[in-house]
Amino acid sequence: MNLYLPIICGILALIFAFAFSSGITKESAGNDRMKEIAGYIHDGAMAFLMREYKYLIIFIVAVAVLIIIAIDIKTAICFIFGAIFSICAGYFGMKVATKANVRTAEAARTGQDKALKIAFSGGAVMGLSVVGLGILGLTIFYVVFGNDINVVTGFGLGASSIALFARVGGGIYTKAADVGADLVGKVEAGIPEDDPRNPAVIADNVGDNVGDVAGMGADLFESYVGSIISALTLGYTLFSNDKTKLIFPLILSSIGVLASIIGILIARRSKGDNPQKALNTGTYIGGALVIISTFILSSNIFGNYRVFGAILSGLIVGTLIGKVTEIYTSADYKYVKKIARQSETGSATTIISGLAVGMYSTMIPIIFIAIAVLFSFYIMGGASDVAMGLYGISLAAVGMLSTTGLTVAVDAYGPIADNAGGIAEMSELPSSVREITDKLDSVGNTTAAIGKGFAIGSAALTALALFASYAQKTNLNSINLLTPGTLVGLLLGAMLPFLFASMTMESVGKAANEMIEEVRRQFKEIPGLMEGKETPDYKKCVDISTAAALKEMILPGILAILVPIIIGILLGAEALGGLIGGAVSSGVLIAIFMANSGGAWDNAKKYIETGVHGGKGSNAHKAAVVGDTVGDPFKDTSGPAMNILIKLMTIVSLVFAPVIAAYGGVLLNLFK
Amino acid sequence: MNLYLPIICGILALIFAFAFSSGITKESAGNDRMKEIAGYIHDGAMAFLMREYKYLIIFIVAVAVLIIIAIDIKTAICFIFGAIFSICAGYFGMKVATKANVRTAEAARTGQDKALKIAFSGGAVMGLSVVGLGILGLTIFYVVFGNDINVVTGFGLGASSIALFARVGGGIYTKAADVGADLVGKVEAGIPEDDPRNPAVIADNVGDNVGDVAGMGADLFESYVGSIISALTLGYTLFSNDKTKLIFPLILSSIGVLASIIGILIARRSKGDNPQKALNTGTYIGGALVIISTFILSSNIFGNYRVFGAILSGLIVGTLIGKVTEIYTSADYKYVKKIARQSETGSATTIISGLAVGMYSTMIPIIFIAIAVLFSFYIMGGASDVAMGLYGISLAAVGMLSTTGLTVAVDAYGPIADNAGGIAEMSELPSSVREITDKLDSVGNTTAAIGKGFAIGSAALTALALFASYAQKTNLNSINLLTPGTLVGLLLGAMLPFLFASMTMESVGKAANEMIEEVRRQFKEIPGLMEGKETPDYKKCVDISTAAALKEMILPGILAILVPIIIGILLGAEALGGLIGGAVSSGVLIAIFMANSGGAWDNAKKYIETGVHGGKGSNAHKAAVVGDTVGDPFKDTSGPAMNILIKLMTIVSLVFAPVIAAYGGVLLNLFK
Q1: What is the number of CB-based contacts under 8 A between chain A and chain B?
Q2: Is residue B64 part of a domain?
Q3: CB of A101 within 8 A of CB of A213?
Q4: Of B278, B230, B176, the residue nearest B546 (C-alpha)
Q5: How far is A59 from chain B (nearest CA, A)?
């Protein structure tokens, strides 16, 4: 076995992505009204991307120069291509998603099966682009630079940087639009959701694509690439004489790509009344294929089943964390019901109850992650061979992420179905169409919650694996909490996620306020708008979200990149290790807390809308709407931003490790 | 210099406490109505204490047995007395506070100066009891057990256990009563605050004493004792041949006690229009006395000014953290104004904005703590002598806490003034009286916010110092984040504060719901209540708060004590070190976040009530009330509970260190 396998698998994934894409394009895009609406959304999404790229060019050049000065030109090249590959995945995925949405709506006129197939194919394009470009890019640069994994970490940094823009910027975009559309449209003007008279409605639909398709894709692209890089780095010193073992993480990922393709094909073909079942079947078959292959490979390549054990622990824990998320955020379980009940005594109790559920929900996922870390370390014999144990942790991360293609496909399907519903509404299609898209959408909401749990879990494990790689690269045998530098690093690191959450929440607030002003202005100043005689200025709202999203993410972005470097230089490599440890631990917790509080509030509101506790319009419902509004930036902006923060900080430390190892600790040296 | 000094200072503090107490008792308690109301509050407070003691006896016996089995009987004896001394301080402080409140109201009839003097004397009794009993108890057992500091750690555990009951139970008590009184009384029935027709009004006033006097006192008693124990432990190996250096932490604390007494006497005598200035003058003079004495002692005892530097850093940082708290929580600064402005767009934006401010406010205090840790470590020569550096950190903690007597006095003054206002209202005293108590109360609110910041900062530094003591006692030279056990410990530890916050918030919710039901029932079932013809059943409401507070703190209490022992046994001493590191870092952050979000919401509401953004009754005000209600358990229950959690977990680990060092790591040993 050699490096042809990952290259072939990567290309295969892209071929399937293209095939699905052209299949979608061939479908009918519906009547003129539908095409018009879809055109607005497509143009809005593309406008965001184009504007984002302008910022990105400056950013990429600046960081590349920094890398050239501090490290070398090869790493800078890898960085640039890591960024470009992530951009391509996002561009392609979003372009197809904004075509699939209207075609899903059109297909829903004839029935659910076809609508599901188109929506899911759209999601699959994103999923397969992520893994195809991820594994292809990594392998190419691994080969080009003569298996020098240190250089290839630059690719991971490139991926992380784009994830920052896509996930954090996208998160701000989508929530500014959402809050603006809801507060003025639904609450003040009293028009329904997705009403074409609402000036922010297009921005809202664009936001679903920008945040939930491109943002989620870039997030998992980063985890995917990061986990493989970490495993390759840690394997580098262990297996320098055994090429097959050396490239095992790439082989494992290749298997995962094939399994994902098969899973996607199965999920796409499923028919029947229950779309959830179709998605589940595909996911389980994909997972099972990875497990069986790994079982065989573990014995063939390593001569034992230890590797299999480590990988399996990652896969199982990834799935379990997703499932547990459902318990805390679905109205089928007691937690959401409790929040709904608390809404009867007003919005304050809704908020307290939702915060408590989110905080409580951190316990089980953290215990699962802890078990995966311990199990994958010790099963690999870490008790006597620490390096091998740490390699086991990185394999757990690669294992968890091996079916990323499938996960992203299932995940990106949701916003496409959501968009389809919006288009159906705005184009005044028959209510039967909306019923189908609503059903697809509600499945999408569940998969989104699970996907969010998975994204957090994988980010945590990836960050921990990269953390081990960082220690190895800086020649640290110990990151000792009893040294004051590490302790201070830990405290400062634990603080950063709070700061990041605060900044991103504020950003949503600011952007939403601008949006609210604009929507109010249009309602007031455009005559005939409320009567439906005049089209609102959608583009203006799209512009506001775009500009705000990009402007607001500059400061947190700089923070995430510069703080590790500054702390490393001032307090040294070990203190930087403490910083990462602190940031990862508190970042994961805040991510889970915010995602689940937000998800629980959202579903508590929907639960009340089914008629319980007074139903829509009751006081309980009003309180629940407050919870949902607070939850919006929680679950779609600040929470997911944590994933990026912890991975980005870790990979920045990894890339700049040589500089920090050489020059770090300037401040502490003064005392010596 | 020898151990007579701390004993004399401890006794002196208690003599002053008694003198102030009998001075207060001699003052007039006003007319019959005032005596009746004050009697209800006093009886309610005592009822809470008595019920608490019943639980405490079971708890103390159980833990003492555990200590006898696991460690030895001497430590168990110290534990029991640590608990008893803390109980005595709380009992005495609260008894006097519930006498001072009505006398403050009566004195306010004649003028502000006398009212301030009585209220502040009441607070001083609590403050001097805390430091007097703290230093006396520690020194006595230090002498009795032949300078065996390991045994004396039991005293710290006793203090911590009582703090758990007093602070967490008290926090639940006070907020259940507050929310119940506000939601039904103010919002539903439309009667003013502190109206005697409200059945929960007495419980609310009792809550101020239980939570803010006894709870805060026990919290700082724990920090005070813990920091001294930590410094004595770390100094034990450093200065085994030099008794003066060995007992230096006790000498430093003695000086602090004297300085506190002088500061209190000055603050008490101040006259004039600005009560804030009087309190400040006393505080600054007390601090200055400690600084000057330490400057001399450092050179005399240690032959250099390094020790002075370490202590000074603690004192300065403690003061700065308090001051910074004001910036984020006072309406004089931009943050609270922003929350008030955001209230115009509804309660969701109020909540988001307040959460963002709280999270943002973690940055500066953490940086200050980081600076104090680094400075006190390196100034002591930690770069070449780690043990000496760690001793420096513990001295910073002792320094910060040296003027605890003064801090608690200033802090406990607030709820007494608040209570006085309530009594004035309920007794229908002239509005001029209420004006004076309101003024004293508003000063109390500022000092409370500063006191909260100080409590958090001192808890953090104390926990870090105890953490170093723990490592020394388990013979750990390294708590290495690169071992999976430590990493898992870190993750689990960081999760515990989230869990603790969730549980305590839920507890307040549950207890408040019971209170709401009861108040509604009384309004409905007692004829003539609303007309003021009939007295409500205050006692029932007091009972509900009492029962709920004590019941709801059992689970979190068990958690805080058992988790460190279980993790230590399963994963070993190093992993337990990781657990403490994680818990302290995330606990401090959540403490700051919750305290400041809560304080900021509170003052945003009050700011709107001054007439801005539409003033009282406007939509902005309604939104701000939601923020304030969410903030109540934040700032008065869950936030302060973090202080206890991190100290208690650390001291449990310290006391059980021998067992964990001997038998720990059962689970990991399976893999070996």
Answers
A1: 240
A2: yes
A3: no
A4: B176
A5: 26
Q: Which two tokens stand for residue B483?
A: 């071992």
Are A578 and B582 in contact, with CB atoms under 8 Å apart?
Answer: no
Shortest CA gap B133–chain A (Å): 32
Cβ–Cβ of A577/B502 closer than 8 Å?
A: no
B509/A484 CB distance under 8 A: no
**B65 exposure class (CB count in 10 Å sphere: 0-12, 13-18, 19+):** exposed
The residue in chain A having the minimum alpha-carbon distance to the alpha carbon of residue B475 is A482
Q: Express each pLDDT in A209-238 by its tens digit.
A: 888 888 889 999 999 999 999 999 999 889
Interface test with A, best of B469, B498, B505 (most A CBs within 10 A): B498
Spatial contact of B372 and B389, defined as CB atoms under 8 Å apart: no
pLDDT at B1 over 70: no
Reported as a single tens digit per residue, the pLDDT across A520-537 is 889 888 888 888 788 888
The type of residue at A110 is T
CA distance B555 to chain A (A): 14
Are A468 and B482 an interchain contact pair (Cβ–Cβ within 8 Å)?
Answer: yes
Question: Quick check: helix, strand or coil at residue B535?
Answer: coil
pLDDT band per the 50, 70, 90 thresholds, residue A600: very high
Q: What is the mean pLDDT of chain B?
A: 91
Return the pLDDT at B245: 93
Residue B31 lies in a domain: no
A671 → closest Cβ in B346, B353, B378 = B378
Could you give the ipTM of this predicted complex? 0.94
User: Which spans in A190-305 are helix H?
Assistant: 201-207, 216-238, 243-246, 248-269, 275-302
Four-CA torsion B146, B148, B149, B154, nearest 10 degrees: -100
Q: Indicate whether B503 belongs to any domain.
A: yes
Q: Measuring CA to CA, which residue among B377, B394, B366, B399 is closest to residue B585?
A: B366
- For residue A450, give every residue at least 6 positions away whose Cβ sits within 8 Å of its Cβ, in sequence order, or none: A322, A323, A325, A326
B488 contacts A374? CB cut-off 8 A: yes
Burial code (b: 16+ CB inside 10 Å, e: under 16) for A479-499 equals bbbbbbbbbbbbbbbbbbbbb
* Secondary structure (H, E, C), A374-406: HHHHHHCCCCCCHHHHHHHHHHHHHHHHCCHHH
Kindly report the nearest CA distance between residue A13 and chain B, in angstroms. 35
Asked whether A85 and A134 are in contact (CB, 8 A), the reply is yes
Q: Provide the residue range defining the domain that includes B465.
A: 39-427+437-669
In degrees, rounded to 5, the angle at the alpha carbon of residue B383 between the alpha carbons of residues B382 and B385 is 50
Contact B313, B396 (CB under 8 A): yes
| Cβ-contact B207, B145 below 8 angstroms | no
Q: Choose, out of A338, A344, A359, the residue to mutate when testing the contact with B (most B CBs < 10 Å).
A: A359
Of A351, A577, A671, the CB nearest to B383: A671
In the block, residue with structure tokens 């900044």: A503
> How many independent structural domains does chain B possess?
1
pLDDT tens digit sequence for A62-114: 999 999 999 999 999 999 999 999 999 999 999 999 999 999 999 999 888 89
In 3D space, the residue among B234, B243, B240, B233 whose CA is nearest the CA of residue B385 turns out to be: B234
Helix H segments across B380-483?
386-401, 404-426, 431-473
- Give the closest of B494, B495, B502 to A356, CB-based: B502
User: How many angstroms from the chain centroid is the CA of residue B418?
Assistant: 18
| pLDDT range class, residue B586, cuts 50, 70, 90 | very high
Nearest CA in chain A to B372: A488
**Does some domain include residue B46?**
yes
pLDDT at B316: 92
